[in-house]
Design goal:
alpha/beta; 6-stranded parallel beta sheet; 14 strands
């Protein structure tokens, strides 16, 4: 695949706009089509972002022969059906996080993609930013020794709206699936899958988690302390502590461009890691790399890890007693 990757975007919300702007930073990618639930919404998106083909249904976008890859940007409960629709049409799929409502749905989509040899990846865009690429490099060469503790939070305060996406159980509302997934995925990247989970949450008026705190325990004794919220502003910082130092990802860590490395007996070192575009371009570049190399999944965001992250969040919600209507 030598030519530019021809992208379609399924959905026209805020995150779809962000991804479209990210694509504009790539020389080897072109946004050629958008699909919405109405012609007017598709046209408005196309007018704003210069997209030539505007489809009034998701099915029309999936069938567009001029599209190589489709980015799924719809609310959480629709990810499974939307991903399967595009995979069945032969498209490569980049699906926004959380990948699905639960691990069972994630496994269904991934089984289909593997059986039919279609490319599929979760759009965990933060993982591809330079700051997290450097973090992985530092950990791989044991720059801070053995990791023993990780703390990560992602919380913000928003107005209560019982019909809004963040508070409606029918839309997979709550902090965990919306922003807590970033911290769970970070812990997975650094420490793997947990063997123990202890967690508490405040379930608000609509029954979804408005704030929570979770401790993940790992083989060997390492711990991850995670918190998320949609009704409280939190520091949005990460500290990874090891036997010989620490790495701090500064606020807001999930879209940051610097880290501080502390090693025993040495002065703290701040490492600046600026990025091009708005950051969403890096996950699109990873899709392009994989497609050109003939890969069916990314080794940076592998599908088995996506399932493991969903299983961790399922176990967390089970301890809270939070079950969504579609489950």
């Amino acid at each position: 695949m030598e030519q530019s990757i021809r992208w379609g975007i399924l959905g026209t919300g805020n995150i779809a706009h962000q991804f479209a702007r990210g694509l504009a930073a790539l020389a080897d990618a072109k946004l050629v089509a958008v699909g919405s639930r109405s012609q007017s919404a598709a046209n408005a998106f196309g007018d704003e972002l210069g997209v030539e083909r505007r489809h009034p249904t998701y099915e029309d976008l999936a069938r567009d022969p001029g599209v190589d890859a489709i980015y799924i940007s719809t609310p959480h409960p629709f990810h499974k059906a939307n991903s399967l629709l595009c995979l069945e049409a032969g498209k490569a799929v980049l699906c926004e996080k959380p990948f699905a409502i639960n691990a069972r749905e994630a496994e269904e989509v991934i089984r289909y993609a593997r059986r039919h040899r279609r490319f599929l990846m979760e759009a965990m865009w933060t993982r591809f930013l330079p700051v997290l690429v450097r973090t992985r490099e530092l950990l791989a060469r044991h720059a801070i020794g053995e990791v023993r503790m990780l703390t990560a939070d992602f919380g913000f305060r928003t107005s209560f709206d019982p019909r809004g996406r963040l508070f409606d159980p029918a839309l997979g509302g709550g902090a965990l699936l919306d922003v807590g997934v970033y911290s769970v995925a970070l812990a997975s990247m650094v420490l793997g899958a947990p063997i123990q989970i202890a967690t508490l949450a405040h379930l608000g008026e609509t029954g979804v988690d408005e704030q929570s705190g979770t401790v993940l325990g790992f083989a060997g004794g390492a711990l991850a302390l995670l918190s998320s919220a949609v009704r409280a502003n939190t520091p949005q910082q990460v500290v990874i502590s090891g036997t010989e130092g620490s790495i701090t990802l500064h606020s807001p860590w999930w879209k940051g461009d610097k880290l501080t490395l502390v090693r025993s007996g040495k002065q703290p070192e701040q490492i600046d890691l600026p990025y091009t575009g708005n950051g969403y371009n890096y996950e699109a570049a990873e899709v392009a790399r994989c497609l050109r190399e003939g890969k069916l999944e990314s080794d940076v965001m592998p599908l088995d890890e996506t399932i493991a992250i969903m299983k961790t969040m399922d176990q967390i919600r089970a301890q809270w007693g939070l079950k969504y209507p579609m489950e």
